[in-house]
Amino acid sequence: MKTIKNTQWSFYLGWILSGAIGFLITIPISLAFDVFVFNQILGEMMMVRGAMVITEDYMLMYAYIPWYGLVIGTFQYLLLRQKLTKMGWWILVTSLGWSLVWLGIALRTNPLGDIEIPSSAGYFLIAGTSVGVLIGVIQWLILRMQVAYASWWIPINGLGFGIAGIILANISSWLEYMIVFTIPCISTGILLWLLLEKFPQDVNHRHSPIILS
Questions:
Q1: Helix or strand or coil: residue 46?
Q2: What per-residue confidence (pLDDT) applies to 1?
Q3: Are the C-beta atoms of residues 151 and 137 closer than 8 Å to each other?
Q4: Most confident region among 82-91, 108-117, 157-166, 190-199 by mean pLDDT
Q5: Would you say 46 and 52 are in contact if contact means Cβ atoms under 8 Å apart?
Q6: How far is 23 from 141, CA to CA, in rounded Å?
Q7: Nearest to 73 by CA among 114, 25, 2
Q8: pLDDT at site 109
């Protein structure tokens, strides 16, 4: 069954920008969550590794990650439904993937404990690739039902997040963060263009170079 609709370059541009757009939309949501939830539970100041820090600043990442998954999952779903049918699960699986990332970070770093995150580029490469593969596997479960060669989604997602991870180790400005969040969407956007426009769309095809679908 062929579910692919006609090419619309606005679709691919929107997909590439989805990371940056999701990043910007999630900031006020996570800040509000910080103020109305974390501040109420932990107070305006909290003790971390022997020092007092502002709760909403320190806990921002822990509020941001799951909300980002929901926001970008919703935005990408609105794009994907222009090309593919029955993609409503995309929101749930993307949110689940980012929630698992949040859980991994929370267990690994323990915001109230003594563990520091390594700052080396190698660590961020491995961490970024792992995040990309995890989210890629979960999204692949939906994509594989309609798109041939969908198994490429896993390594390409890992590649994009791995590159983003290396850059993440050496940035500090909001603009740089927007660029980092865009990189995985560039890699998967190029792959989507190939999968939807260039490769035969026989969902029963099983001769993908990576035997996963």
A1: strand
A2: 41
A3: no
A4: 157-166
A5: yes
A6: 25
A7: 25
A8: 57
Q: Would you say residue 152 has pLDDT above 50? A: yes
Size of the chain in residues:
213
Return the SS3 of 52.
strand
Amino acid at 124: F
The whole-angstrom separation of Cα 112 and Cα 22 is 28
The two tokens of residue 75 are 């935005």
CA atoms within 13 A on the CB side of 164: 27
Helix (H, G, I), strand (E, B) or coil at 48: strand
For tokens 């740089």, what's the residue? 176
56 token code pair: 């909403």
Residues near 35 by Cβ (< 8 Å), separated by ≥ 6?
Answer: 56
Cβ 98 vs Cβ 65: under 8 Å? yes
The identity of residue 134, as a single letter, is: L
Rg, the chain, Cα only: 18
- Kindly list the domain boundaries of the chain, sorted by start residue: 9-198
The whole-number average pLDDT for the span 116-124 is: 70
Amino acid of residue 98: W
Percent of the chain with pLDDT over 90: 44
What pLDDT, on the 0 to 100 scale, is given for residue 66? Answer: 87
Decide if 62 contacts 111 (C-beta within 8 A).
Answer: yes
Q: Is the pTM of this model over 0.85?
A: no
Q: To the nearest 5 percent, what fractions of the chain are helix, strand and coil?
A: 70, 5, 25
In this predicted structure, what is the pLDDT of residue 133? Answer: 96
